[in-house]
Amino acid sequence: MRFLIILFALSIPHLIEAKQKLGEQDELQIKEVFSKTESAWNNADIDGFMEGYWKSERLTFIGRSGVTYGWEATRESYLKGYPDKTAMGKLKFTVLELLKIEDNSALMIGKFYLSRSIGDMHGHFTLVWKKIDGSWVIISDHSSSSN
Hints:
Layout: H1 2-17, H2 24-42, H3 46-50, E1 60-63, E2 66-69, H4 71-81, H5 85-88, E3 90-102, E4 105-115, E5 121-132, E6 135-145
Parallel strand pairs: 1-6
Antiparallel strand pairs: 1-2, 3-4, 4-5, 5-6
């Protein structure tokens, strides 16, 4: 029994390492891209907002309508759901965690708040980021609204 306790105590650092932090430069780059998406949204600029996403048919977005595959399909879904500035409102992201998955991938968990005259929305998101050709982009987005 004593051996098992010692073995468990020795494994704790490895469990903590599973939640690795990103390098400072990578974290800054991801947060800069993410900030630009928030700003573009608040300027009613869906195309600017979509610049943070991977321009690939393999992009996945999961929301209240289910799974959407591809950058263009995701863009079209946003344009349909948020056709004007009134529908888009003012968006505020809060990042709760940003963790390294591998050298060129990261996981971001956070919440969003959309303030609108037609009714506010809020919820949480999980984003998978990948560094592709030297730039960080969102390759998977799972967002859920609490209202």
